[in-house]
Amino acid sequence: MSQSLIKKNNNHIYDFVVLGADGMQGRIVARDLLEKGYDVLLADLSQLKLKELLKKYSQQASFEQADLRDVNRTIGIIQKSGAEVIINCAEGDWNMNVYQAGLHTRCHLVDLGSRVDMTRDQIKLDKHFKKIERTAITGCGAVPGMGNIMLAHAAKKFNSIETVELGFAWDSNIKKFVVPFSIESIMEEYTLLAPYIENGRLKRIKPMKSAQVRNFRAVGKQKIFLVDHPETYTIQHYFKSWGVKNIRFYASFPQHSEKIINALIDLTFADKHAVNFGKIDILPDEFLAQLLKRMKHPRGYKEWENIWVLIKGSHQRRRKCIMMECIVPPLKGWEDAGCNIDTGFPASIIAQMIKSGDINKVGSFAPEGVVPEKLFFKELRKKKMRVYENGKIIN
Fold first, then answer.
1. Are residues 83 and 15 in contact, defined by beta-carbon separation less than 8 angstroms?
2. Interval 200-235: pLDDT, tens
3. What is the pTM of this model?
4. Segment 106-116, tens digit of pLDDT
5. Could you tell me the domains of the chain?
6. What whole-number distance in Å separates Cα of residue 386 and Cα of residue 218?
């Protein structure tokens, strides 16, 4: 592609900057914003998957090469864009770098979340974002993201909450491996010790030691297991006054997908130690992520996903239980994205809410602390995502 299709003139002002734009979620966010008529600067290490999008929206979009390890370079790209809202779709390892860039450039920002320790550090920056009168929200995808917001909705119907369980389950019509979402994050979920709260105390467990089978609307029976996820921290942070004692986050992958994931882990792609190749050090998981971008979905491939939250507690001295679910069906025109639309779309929706002023509270948050639930659910409905409360559609 010629440079004329990639770069605009230096005076162009963009509505949003999407970091990690060449990744799976970044492309979903970018396309959604561009289809709505916004001008978007796309930034990533590569543009392997972006060329068609850049060509189609050449008047609205351009590309800048970005390495989030270089904070000064990232700051320069954001300043050059003129955008007030950053959407970070890159790997969570670099979330703090982007937060520092956001503070320096006085921008609003959202990201898809990271591990517990980094999420805690991001929310601790609350006073710094208040000082510059900007909004930062971490974990704006499916889970974290939609699950947190469904919990915030349901919590209003309790006087006290004892247990919160949440997670995701999905399956496909063709039993062939397709990258579900970030392969780096997936391998971490299988290999890192999983934190959970039991009777108010933090505990950790090997993911597969917690495995059990449950039945899910639109998906069926699946094995679920505890994984390292930031909700363990954010739920305790925002719902402490409800008296929450137990918090568990479960992941679930269909058998045909899990088989390949385990094979990749056995082949050491989850290893965080660099491999020296000639004069270059290569991280196996980052290399794998780039390699898997070449995969295409089988013809006729479709996915369904259930994002769920189970809340147990009491209301007016009576035991109460609410099951919240968001069912994500195949969406016409977005088949290649599969269920990943439930991560990309929420990030796009929340970023637009900040830009439009529907979210105007300043500081550093997780979604349950600041996103208006009814408006968010209404936007999900436009994407054919139905939200259920104890089996009844509420959006």
1. yes
2. 999 999 999 999 999 999 999 999 999 999 999 999
3. 0.92
4. 999 999 999 89
5. 3-137 (3.40.50.720), 146-338+372-393 (3.30.360.10)
6. 12
